[in-house]
Design goal:
It holds the Pfam family 4HBT_2. Helix 1 packs parallel to helix 2. Helix content is 37%, strand content 29%. It has 178 residues and is of the alpha+beta class. The chain has a single domain, classed as Thiol Ester Dehydrase, Chain A, CATH 3.10.129. The strands form three sheets. It has a five-stranded antiparallel β-sheet, sandwiched between helices. Strands 2-3 form a two-stranded antiparallel ribbon. Strands 8-9 form a two-stranded antiparallel ribbon. A hairpin with a 4-residue loop joins strand 5 and strand 6. It contains five helices and nine strands; from the N terminus they run αβββααββββββαα.
Length: 178
């Protein structure tokens, strides 16, 4: 079902208005029966829904077209997510997606899922753009997308996120046995 949801998101995005710069993208979705674990939407399904939000952003900003033309791919280095409330079958919610910070190497994307004004989940995704093993400078990407108002202010949330990733790597990867 994951691929069906992603394919539908790709098709729907092609018919939506193009983005200007770093606007916030809003996308509605409904919880399918296949998304349910016991009685609520499972976390893997929520991650897929968030992926459809990023796909919507990439298509509407023309990034997917530019990336294909240049043979770029865009691995996520880290995703940090918080779950706040459950979603039940057939409930409708919205995903909000935006580019929140860009430095020389990384593009940070913020996302949240809301239902009736209440936060269901929120995440930050740290991405880079590659061509083979080469990392493409974000300035080149922003220029190719004709984005001038690039968010370059590293606010507290991004700083906290980076520190948490350093600590997590230290504990889970470098010092597993300690």
């Amino acid at each position: 079902m994951r691929w069906i949801r992603l394919l539908l998101a790709l098709i729907q995005a092609k018919f939506k208005t193009k983005l200007i710069g770093t606007e916030t993208v809003r996308k509605s979705f409904r919880v399918w029966i296949s998304d349910i674990d016991v009685s609520v939407m499972n976390h893997a399904a929520i991650m897929t829904v968030l992926e459809t939000g990023r796909l919507d952003l990439m298509v509407r900003s023309n990034f997917l077209k530019v990336a294909s033309k240049n043979k770029w791919f865009f691995p996520s280095q880290a995703i940090s997510i918080q779950f706040y409330r459950p979603l039940k079958v057939f409930q409708k919610a919205q995903i909000f997606t935006r580019i929140s910070y860009v430095d020389a190497k990384w593009i940070y994307v913020e996302q949240k899922i809301e239902r009736k004004g209440k936060i269901i989940a929120a995440c930050i995704v740290k991405n880079t753009i590659k061509k083979g093993r080469e990392t493409i400078p974000t300035s080149e990407i922003m220029k190719a997308l004709q984005i001038e108002n690039v968010p370059t202010f590293k606010y507290d949330l991004i700083k906290t996120y980076e520190l948490e990733n350093i600590h997590m790597t230290d504990k889970l990867v470098d010092n597993w046995d300690n």
